[in-house]
Each structure stands twice: as structure tokens, then as C-alpha cells.
Amino acid sequence: MITLEHVSKTYKVSKRDAGFSSAWKALFHREYEYIHALNDVSFTIGEGEMVGYIGPNGAGKSSTIKILSGILTPDDGTCLINGITPWKNRIEHTRGIGVVFGQRTQLWWDVPVMDSYELLKEIYRIDAHTYQQNLERLTDMLHLSELLKTPARQLSLGQRMRCEIAASLLHSPRILFLDEPTIGLDAVSKLAVRDFIRQLNQEQNTTVILTTHDMQDIEALTSRIILIGKGQILLDGTIDDIRLDYDSTEEALAAFYRSHGI
Predict the structure, then answer these.
(1) SS3 string of 31-90?
(2) Is the distance from CB of 85 to CB of 2 less than 8 angstroms?
(3) Sorting pLDDT into bands at 50, 70 and 90, what band is 1?
């Protein structure tokens, strides 16, 4: 279902010192730094798998998700998702994926959540029967009935994240990308989101790629992890492969990073 082969991505970033004189010089002569976000990244994810894609800040996780989503084009390598190259067939590709970024929203801020859903229905060209069926199912599973008439700006973070997840699933995607879906949530909200993701995978066989720093999310939801660091895949296996003799997963993960000079 998802095949990434020898993908690389480099960013060209301008840099300068602080101060007016440095800003003036930069107008005529800019200095650049090249950041290698991804370096020969390859992996395959099968249909119905739930995979944790983890790594430290700046490891290349978000760049990978953006390439898989069709937002970014890699410098080298190939990516096929359901037989489609994401950045070449973006419209067709987006019909089969759902994306949730924990620190970004796809809901319109000043209108009721239901209005955002209606607009997404038109964007994805969801037929009325499928839309109503999915809306009822998601409303029931995520307990949204009291939230649909509320503007997004008036929702708590936990409420908004439940609405964001529902928004990403209205068009029945086969693949769900979750980037920090439980960031900032309280314990009750985290458990509700985890239970929903697990149920979605079991009932709909939805493929889930979860990117998070919360190892409890990883342990609760995934049996496989892909660990990336400095733009390279360091491990493709299970949590037990790094846990060793440590009492907690966080300690084991920190030791693993140190052993790789991260």
C-alpha cells in the first residue's frame, strides 16, 4: 500500500547574524545553509497496519509525512501509495488519505463545526448518503453531538482534536496520517482518541501512521515502529527492540538516541 524507496530531501535555508548591518549586507550577499532533512529513506507499510513513526525533533518525521501527503516533492527517490505518486496526482491521492496535524487546524475558526464539515463535503465531493452515514458514525464514536453547532474557536483543545479527526475521515480514507494527534490533551481525551483510532483500524482496516513523542500512544496503538534520526532510518521493528533492560520506554529511547549520536 505505501512504498517509499531511497527518498531524499534537502532544504536551502538563508542565514545571517542579528543586527541592522547584517540585514543590510544580506540584501546584496546572502549566505545559505543546506539541511538534509531526509537521506535515502526507504520503508514499506501494508494495508491495515498501525505504525509508529518516531524520532527526535528535526529528525525528518514531518518532511516524510508531507511527502506521503503530496505536499512536498522529494529531491530523489520514489513513493507509491495505492499505486499513486502523491505529488504528481494530488487530487486523486487526497481522496484516499486523511491527515491530522495536532498543531494545525482544518476547521474554520469562527463558524460552527458543522459548517466546516459541510464545506469539506463539497471539497471532497462526498455523495449525500455516504456523508450522512459517516457523519452519524463519527459523531457517535467521538461523542460530537454537543459540539457540531459550536464555533471551533470556542472548543477546548481536546474537543477540537476530536472534531479534527472526524473532519479527516468524512470522505472514508483508506490511510490516516496522525501527526501529534494527542498533543496537549488531558488523560480522558487521550484515552478517547486512542480508543477511537484502535476501533477505526479494527472495523475499517484503516492504515494508520502515527507520529508522536508520546510513547504511551505508541505502546497503546502500534506493534511496529519506524525510528528516524538525522534524516535516516535507524530502526524498523518493535518497542522491545530498543527497550532492553530499561524500566521505561522513554529512558530506553533516550539511550538509543545517545548511542547514535543524536
Answers:
(1) EEEEEEEEEEEEEEECCCCEEEEECCCCCCHHHHHHHHHCCCCCCEEEEEECCECCCCCH
(2) no
(3) confident
Euclidean distance between CA atoms 133 and 138, whole angstroms: 9
Side chain identity at residue 189, one-letter code: S
- Please state the domain extents for the chain: 46-259
pLDDT at residue 82 is higher than 80: yes
43: its cell numbers: 520503508
Nearest to 107, CA basis, from 116, 99, 115, 98: 116
CB 139 within 8 A of CB 145: yes
52 with 212: CB under 8 angstroms?
Answer: yes
Mean pLDDT value across the chain? 89
Provide the terminal-to-terminal Cα distance of the chain, rounded to the nearest Å.
Answer: 31
Asked whether the whole model's pTM tops 0.90, one would answer no
d(CA 181, CA 220): 14
Contact criterion met (CB below 8 Å) for 48 and 204: no
| Overall fold of domain 46-259 | Rossmann fold (3.40.50)
pLDDT > 70? residue 19 = yes
pLDDT-derived band at 24, boundaries 50, 70, 90? low
The confidence band for 249, taking pLDDT boundaries of 50, 70 and 90, is confident
Distance from C-alpha of 93 to C-alpha of 110, rounded to nearest angstrom: 29
Backbone angles phi, psi at 247, to 5 degrees: -75, -35
Q: Tell me how far CA of residue 181 lies from CA of 21, 61, 68, 163, 204, in angstroms.
A: 43, 14, 17, 11, 19
Among residues of the chain, what percentage have pLDDT more than 70? 97
